[in-house]
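Support reply, case 0932

Customer input (verbatim):
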Amino acid sequence: MNLALVEKLVNKSAKIGIVGLGYVGQPLFIRYSQIGYSVVGFDIDQLKVDELNKGHSAIEHIRDDWVKEANANGFEATTDFSRAAECDALILCVPTPLNKYREPDMSFVEGTTDMLKPHVRAGQVVSLESTTYPGTTDELIKPRLEENGLTVGEDLFLVYSPEREDPGNAHFNTQTIPKVVGGYSAACLEVGEALYKHAIDKVVPVSSTKAAELTKLLENIHRAVNIGLVNEMKVVADRMGIDIFEVIDAAATKPFGFTAYYPGPGLGGHCIPIDPFYLTWKAREYGLNTRFIELSGEVNRAMPEYVVSKLMDGLNQHQKSLNGSRILVLGIAYKKNVDDMRESPSVEIMELLRDKGAEVQYSDPHVPKFPKMREHNFDLSSVELSASNLEEYDAVILATDHEKFDYDAIYTNSKLIIDTRGRYRHRNGKVIKA
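Our regenerated output:
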């Protein structure tokens, strides 16, 4: 049966179902539509489905003309999960957040699989792309898919292929980022490679779903640990009166053995702040403590508090307390030049300021209105940056260094700048490095 499915995937007669139409799912449905596949998108959010069917994406870097082109090519979004039976391939792109105890919240993966399983049939491939701990595909997805009598590896094919989207990165896109694929069996891997070979320039097969799952965790733990290291170095360098950015730039001139990572106000995004804790949680099952990973997580989670402490130092120099001060946060997306708010440290900074009695507002050209979030709530809209507006605030915190900001105007018209990104590293006076 796998040979018949491989043939359909190779000749593009297969219908592709994308389950979860967010930052990962939307680039995928656009890519598969571009190269000639019939594509159906599934999501539980009726508003999102309606907007996509009208040719509009709420995600800033997903252009409406791309969505309209996909619609013209036959793409349709739906909340009707029974239509999964129409599809030859189902690619799951659903959230995998942490709960309040920093343990994996698999409810979206489990719930989505449970919605699909009455409609899953023989001759399909199911691919999970959500970042998760090693064993998820085999231990959570496989048993659910087999409840109706199908056998994975014979009737139905199961793979894990971690998403590697980087919103706002102009150098890489869905097509050009190599795709790691692991299958439950050799037959599953063969089908998985066929699923992605036309859509992605380079497919990288690995021996199992667990190897693919751990690959994604290693990629992001590598970043989290190194960012934790440089954030700790930032604190040490500041106490010693040394510019950490100067040190990093000097170290980066070494042509081997060093990769530059830069400090910031904390970790943000859908992967790096979360993924390390998937592995630390799973490692406990094997009697292991991942102390190195957990320590870097502690350092990175402490950064918003560090930024607020530097703000309080700056206000004290102006004979002001934080309580009652007017503070403007510049940039609330988790990284520059995108509208993605997931796990943004800016939001935690804003909550800390609010809890300490400050009047908090924000300015972000990519986020005109503070969005609805699972755990955070601000009824705010972005403040327009002007000379008169900036002068009204006791301090501004540069949290996300968008290119659209006029940094000279900000410097000229602000009373106090807390710089978490090194944009004002060569300016003195009103700038406090954080």
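We compared this against your earlier run and they match. Two observations from our side: The chain has 15 helices and 13 strands. The mean pLDDT is 95. Please reopen the case if you see a mismatch on your end.
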